């Protein structure tokens, strides 16, 4: 049981009911929910004063917040997360929503995948009154060219040009500290290796290159450490660093200075290749069915937004893309989740039938 589930399980039945009613009221109206409103909805007769005490306890736990001086409460991001994970009851897709989704995707040209996915995006936006997200099937053709474009400190775009002429754009969250300059350097390095290779093959080449550099670095560094000329800091941790103190005094020979400079260059090169490998992994990975609330939504980092996303699969049950809806945190999750889930299953079925 994770911390969020444990938090809810430790609440009394009355506190759970107050919490549920506040969240449901907020999701329905977007307004703070007050104790007098709750007193009319509780399953047992409880005074507004008692409810206010319960709400204060829930606020202390970080599940509710009072946005104004008024007594009304709204759920926090943690509260919404707990509600979605532990209380939300996802209903069946209603027939009208199913009919509209089916109608939007019927009659599409069997070979027009781009047209199909465009219709999917329009259908999701229209049904949910939110923005739609559609990730096209991953392409396994050899790569001709890669380019990284920085969109924001925590958001970047990779442009993949394949040997068969197709082009894909993928948004991802880059490793911390990356700059437009470092992204250009990463792209140049990858383009030198990419020709004739798929992304998966390129990742394997990167892993071999990192392992080779690491071995070379370890051999050089071990000699310095054994000679007492340097020490490892944070030894064994993922980003250990070789620390050399007073190197001009400790390293009297030109050869030792050259070795130390070579180690420094190897360190920089290794960290650069680790970052590039992480770029590749982030642009290739697929997520399962997920709900991202507020700041959990790293893809767009929109304040007060939620993302409901579901993968779709090919005939071999391999994830090849995803569809989703982006909206306010007070999204009608109970309705949106089955819409997104059904649409993803339908897209996977249609694409599987078309091979």
TrEMBL record:
Keywords: Repressor, Stress response, Transcription, Transcription regulation
Keyword set includes Iron-sulfur: no
One function term, GO molecular function aspect: DNA binding
Keyword match rRNA-binding: no
Superkingdom per UniProt: Bacteria
TM region positions: none
GO BP: any one term: negative regulation of DNA-templated transcription
Domain Heat-inducible transcription repressor HrcA C-terminal: start-end pairs: 116-337
InterPro entries the UniProt entry points to: GAF-like_dom_sf (IPR029016), HrcA (IPR002571), HrcA_C (IPR021153), WH-like_DNA-bd_sf (IPR036388), WH_DNA-bd_sf (IPR036390), WHTH_transcript_rep_HrcA_IDD (IPR023120)
Function (record text): Negative regulator of class I heat shock genes (grpE-dnaK-dnaJ and groELS operons). Prevents heat-shock induction of these operons.
Protein family: Belongs to the HrcA family.
Protein name: Heat-inducible transcription repressor HrcA
Annotated organism of origin: Meinhardsimonia xiamenensis
Gene that encodes it: hrcA
